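Q&A log
Question type: sequence-to-structure
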Amino acid sequence: MNKRKHPDGGHDYDSANKKKRRPSTTGLKRAQKKEIQWFKGRLCEIKHNNAWFLKPTTELPKGYNKSKDVFLRPDFLPQHILPVMEGDTLEFVLGDRDKTRPMARKVRVSQYTPRTCKEITEYMNKLIKELDSNNVRKILGQVLPCTALWKFFGSPVFQSTKDEKLTRIDYIKLLFKLFNLVLHHGTPFKTLLKDAITNLTQGKIFQEENKQSLPAIIASCNYENNELLYSEEQKTSLSAELVRRFCQDVISHIPSATRCLLPTVTAITKKKETESTEFLRTLLSLNVRRKKWVYR
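Response status: OK
Response body:
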């Protein structure tokens, strides 16, 4: 091994055993201390496509002009999420270039206001087509992190319509179709996919006590040839197999979602017990197998 004189003229030391100098962490610690501060605001009426404003619902910091709304550039929002509209709650990070004219430097959706069934289904149909394109990774990279979107899908708030039951069944079928594509293409985004599933399945649409939920719809349906049928006047059906497949696909990704889907599983198994044995056996197998894989 190479020997070198110590710089101060002392004893020789082995350069091979010299300790590596650790990089300075001062800058990292400063960055950690300076956390990003998010504020909330409601989107004002959009009068010009290139000039949006937010009415702050949390007080702006000292030095900022609090008499003015916060300017927002529309292109700061991901283009593939459900388009925002007046009244939606957004979170934003303030820029500090000109505090007399507050401007959002970053922005994300916090909560969507009620939509008509037509507005929601049109967006979902568009997203389904986009997920079948070559641009799927970019689209999922924008859609999956949008927590507000998946919470809204799980607890949709529709503006009142005459055919409420009819539109809800159509919505559920479209939701299952959309989420099947998300599960199929979303494997590379494991953490984001898990969060999306969690936010969706925790929604009111899967809760038993909600009269307009999926379990309530299933319970009120007639059952014929593996189809869940509404009244003859409505002539609307929902495939029982579609419901089972959705539950299986979700639980195969996240076993913990079983608790949220239990009211739906219970409702569908009560319709025809002879067809439910294999379904329940599959769910149990998926749940146990996945947990073993996770904790291995």
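Response note: The chain has two domains: 39-111, 117-295.
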